[in-house]
Amino acid sequence: MIGIVSMILLLIAVYIYKYYENFNPERLHFFIDKCEKEYGDVFTVWTPSPMVILMSYESIKQALVTKGEDFTGRMGRYPDDLFITTENGGVIFSEGESWREQRRTAIHIMRDFGMGKNVMEGQVKSSMHEFMRNLDSIEDKSRVDFRWPLQILVANVVNEVLFGYHYKYDDCKRLMDYSDGLAEQAYPNLTEHVRQDVLRCEKTFDENDEAGCFVHAYIQRMKKSDGSLK
Fold this sequence. Notes:
By secondary structure, the chain is mainly alpha-helical.
């Protein structure tokens, strides 16, 4: 019995080796170009999951525009499933009618907050002015580490819109700990960080007040929806 199992494992190992012996991730574009010449402008590469490659403008247009409805699904497996906390929920990893409703709601909320208008531009300018004031306060300007000021600048623009708060430059330990932890636990760290911000918004939410951030606006729409938002 052990001999049979060993033989099967050996055959699988040989098959995998022969299949990938010409597959070099560092020269992937050459490998794909070679496959196109051999198999045409539409082919599948097993990595080891099947990945369909579209090489020509015509095939891309046909798949994503002409037959776009047939290709709106999601993989639903690693690494996507690390971010999925609700079945077929959210904008990025949902699909079908749920995805359409999530996307429509997100766009409406962002437009209400001034996306593409002077309101959003004003928020970016406000964060930029705070960034410049922080740089002006640095005494030794010959040796300035821009890593944290720039990260705080970008984080404040995002956090102000999504969660309604921003970090102070002299009080940003939570952001620093989160950023440093991404290298070791990227996916769990990100999910937990966002979950904490959402829970904070849920505690400060008042349906009688005007929505002050994206999460508040989304909660309002969830309460008014027929269950299509989750």
